[in-house]
Amino acid sequence: MNIIEADRLVKTYGKDSTKVEALREVSFSVSQGEFAAIVGSSGSGKSTLLHMLGGLDHPTSGTVRIDGEDLYALKERERAVFRRRKIGFIFQSFNLIPVLSVEENIQLPLLLDHRQPDKEYIRDLIHTLGLDERRKHLPSELSGGQQQRVAIGRALAYRPAIVLADEPTGNLDSANSREVMELLKLAVRQYHQTVIVISHDMNIAAEADRVLRMQDGKLVSDTRGGDRA
Amino acid sequence: MERLNESRRSFGQVWRNPGIRRLAVVCLVSALLLMLFAWAFSRYQGERLKREWLARDEQLIGTIAAGHPEIASELPRLFADNSSGDSAIRERGRELAARYGLTRSVDPAVLPIVESYRTNLWATLSIALGLFVLLSAALLLRVYDRPYRHIRRLAISLENSVKQNAPMDKPLYEDGELGLLSHAVQELSLRLQETIAQLHKEKSLLKDTVADISHQLKTPLASLTIYVELLQDPRTSQKDAREFLDTCRRELDRMEWLILTLLKIARLEAEALELAPVKASLSHTIETALDPLRSMAEQRMVELVVNAQEELTLLHDPRWLSEAFTNLVKNAIEHSPEGGQVSIRIERTPLFAHISVKDQGEGIDERHLPHIFKKFYQSSPAGSGVGLGLPLAKSIIEKHEGLISASSRPKEGTSFTVTLPLHRSGSAGPSLTNL
Fold this sequence. Notes:
The structure holds 2 protein chains of 2 kinds.
Chain A: E1 2-13, E2 20-31, E3 35-39, H1 46-53, E4 61-66, E5 69-70, H2 76-86, E6 87-91, H3 102-112, E7 115-116, H4 119-128, H5 144-157, E8 162-166, H6 174-191, E9 194-199, H7 202-205, E10 210-215, E11 218-224
Parallel strand pairs in A: 3-9, 3-10, 6-8, 8-9
Antiparallel strand pairs in A: 1-2, 1-4, 4-5, 10-11
Chain B: E1 3-4, H1 11-15, H2 18-67, H3 75-80, H4 87-99, H5 112-164, H6 176-232, H7 238-269, E2 278-281, H8 282-290, H9 294-299, E3 303-308, E4 313-316, H10 318-334, E5 341-348, E6 352-358, H11 389-399, E7 403-409, E8 413-421
Parallel strand pairs in B: 3-5
Antiparallel strand pairs in B: 2-4, 5-6, 6-8, 7-8
Helix pairs in contact in B: 2-5, 5-6, 6-7, 7-11, 8-10, 10-11
């Protein structure tokens, strides 16, 4: 089952002489449970693509279907709810709320939906993330690796169908990077999630089941493989 | 898993419902319209009353002036004077009026102004208010009907999802109770789909296992049959017979191992087997795993080196996990050259334990690498087994919520890396497909 379908996505910024074509007719699909990486140099359009997939920015033309739903046919308000329930985001700069504790940051998507977080699930999640002793700490009291783990926890709190990660290891050393990637990999398997990771680091991308390479706003290769039987 | 809050709903929660907000808008607009109408209508009626009143006054002034020209100049002052006059004068006026039947109980028809005013007021108000109520009702019906339309749509897509196993189409993405219901229904249909997929998977797994076992047993069974026939033949010499019996013994051992391993994998994959995880030392488990291999390693002159940075305990089933490592290390020994080394390294990071098993063999060709964990896949003739050791190891490690990967460099050897989470909750994860 294809959980993500991008069809001839085009994104241009600016007009006439200052026109920048960030995406030129990008089409691909990702099936459920896949762990895909999008690689490319900076400016190749990979971040733009991820933003389009996550409903964060309107494409100039083309469609994105998530779980069969045409993302840009939804109203802005509906799209916000859709994002909250279906898509988890992880950013390079963690984007945690500085005045909320680790636990509160992780529960945020649920609290936004006026849902009472399942205490046990959240406790398990925090335990798996190795943040037991940090649950009452503020993000500023954590290391970079720990902060990114909190962000992963937040992305997983709603158990979204899709996790989109934009250079999740960009601000981390290699040991922490490996850890983040392994956590994501386990999440895919345990919760049947689909993960798309953006990276410019081939070593990180090599952990994925599938590597999509972007160049000048186009998909230039799509390799499957990896060590998963 | 998150829960819906069952406690009393706050105003904020009620207000999040788009239906409630729409209702409030309709009520507000209706109230405003009604106020506007009341204002305009009272102005209009006031104007009308003033005109008719004036007309009557003019008539009276004219009539009185014609009868009594001497008080004509006084009359307008009398009519325009608003100050409440002497009560004695008013009393006299009332007595006079009563003589002509003009009392409070008089039929309004006698007073044309009141009569026309009343008819007009009645007609206008009833038409206007009637229209107004109809209009509001139409708007309210729309608001009221909307949730029903959504519920109907949910019901239809739920029916489709139940009858055709189709995914829910067009769910509702909005705040409020209906949105939450839609989300819950969607999760239900997703869970249904995944459960069905899981059942199909298990069915094909069972089919494959049966096919695997029968396929793998065919050859040794055929040879056993031949040997038994030969043994039954009186011409077979005593010496040959002993040799045949040895071969039979080996074949039988192989068959036993094959069946046991296949059954183990099948039970692991079908989730029919529960691990008994305890907090135990990982290096101890690995030592246990190496014990049955020491003589084999000695025979092949392969050195086993365990390199553990620190003692680490983690939740696992020592019996099963040691079996996984036995298979990994056995595979490494089989692929090692004489005098080679198999190194086992345990490392820990904040979240994971990494165990790598490295040999100095020929390495695995890149095109074989994605398949080595498949059952009965053999990339090289070096292995003695039937291609079940690595699949078994993989099944066990995945049962521990771990990952296993292999990397290889030709001529330098192969390295298997097992990643096990340090902080595993004792219970199985809240998987959607846990039956």
